[in-house]
Structures are given as structure tokens and as C-alpha cells.
Amino acid sequence: MPIVDNTYFIYTVQPGDTLTAIAYRFSSSVSAIEQANALYPPITDRGLIFPGQKLVVEKDGLSMVYRIVQGGDTLFQYAQDYSSTVEMMYGINPQVGNPGLLYVNQPLFVPVYVYQVEEGDTLAQIAEQFGISLSSLFRANQNRPGLSPDVIYPGYHLLIPLPSSANILVASPKPGTIITAGQTLSGFARAFEGSLLYQIQDSSGGTVTSEAPIQASAGGPAFGTFSTPIQFNRTPQTSAGQLWVYARSAADGSTIDLVKTPILFFKNQPD
């Protein structure tokens, strides 16, 4: 299932906009915008857009998704759209000085990634594959052209919320992708003294990576970034498994803020 690693902008169409002008603004192309948003027959007239629609606009670059602020936008609205929290949205956008004040045309990082639809995909299948609810998937893609509960088109770019809890966001690896030893585990977190833990299990319940520490760049109440190479202590016995990232309560040592990411170890092998 193809997850597209590139830079994307979520742009709300304004009166007078054209695809040519939007493509120029974001150093993209009209054809790429049409494909990503199903702006072609028989779905719609080619290139036809309306004010208020949200377009996914691709640009070569790092694997990041930004939303361009429009008048009236709030962090609360973004948190609702992307299954996040206001505190998380504020924490992963340090350029925002006042969480109650956003500036029009300001790009904000949003906690989603992009999946390119393949032939035979269904929205229910995609939601299950990536461990999210169907309602979360629809909410992340609301007001987008070319999206219907009944049919989706190959090449369409869906926004998928990243795995998160109230205080931990896992940015990489992406859900449903193959992981290997040495690959980077990264994200954002707010934890006591910045102390996090991770472990990996295969789908039989076998431990692939025993509980191991991660150190975030800042401790709570601030959000920090974290990045560490993944280690394997044992060979996976199944093709699929889960990556867990979490913290321990400073009060009683219990597991808190657990984020579970479905991952693969290899393809085309029976569990």
C-alpha cells in the first residue's frame, strides 16, 4: 500500500483561484493536483474547483504535511479534523506564539500522512489497515473533492491521521510499512523529563524488541522531538506486528500515553 513521502499542503480554495495559480504558488503542477484530488471526468469536469474545497497539493521535499491557515481557522478545529489535541497542535508548531491567534496563509504542520489509493481499495479496508476508525478517515478528508463513501479512485491522495495519544505522536515509521533494524523511530512527545520507552512485538505476541529507552529533546510540560534507531533483539516470527511507544507515570510507574503502530517485518509470508 503506497504511502507517499513528500511535502504536501492542504489548501482551501478561495474565490478567484485557478489550478494554475495554486500550482504556481506551491511549486507543484496542475496535473499532480488533478490526480491527487480526482479533478477529472467522469468525477467532475477537469480542473473544476469551488471555494471552500480543500485540495491536497504535492511538492517535492521532506515527508511533511502542512495546512494553510484561512480566516477563522483555529487549533481546536485542526485538532478535531486530525484526531489530535489543541496541546499537541501547539506543541508541534513552535512558530505559533499564541495558540489562540493564527495568521492567514501561515503554514502549520498537521499530524497526518498521505496514502495513494490503489485499484481495489475501499475506505473501510484502508482504515483497518492503518488502525484508525472510518469516521476519523472521513473527518481528516472532509470538504475534499472526489471523495465519496461508496467509491474512491486509484491515484487519489488520502490524508491519514498519524498514530498518537494525548502526549505522544509517532511520525515514523508509518503504519503498515516494513521496518528493519537501524531504521529511525521519530516523533513528538511531552513526558516527564522527556523519558519515553518503546518495544516491538510480532503478531504471535513474541517480543522482537525488548523495552528500550528513548530521550526526547525536552521534558514536560513542553513538547520535544525524539529520534532513535530501532533495534531488534530477536528475529520476528510473523510478517506483521506492533510498535509501542509510551511513557511511565512518575507517580506509580504505570504505562501511560501508549501509542500502538501496526507495522510489517516482511511481505508475502504467512503468519
UniProtKB/TrEMBL annotation:
Residues 9-57, 65-110, 113-160 form the LysM domain. InterPro entries: Gmad2_Ig-like_dom, LysM, LysM_dom_sf. GO terms for molecular function: lytic endotransglycosylase activity. Gene3D superfamilies: LysM domain (3.10.350.10). It holds the Pfam family Gmad2. SMART domains: LysM. It comes from the Bacteria. This is Spore germination protein. It comes from Jeotgalibacillus campisalis.
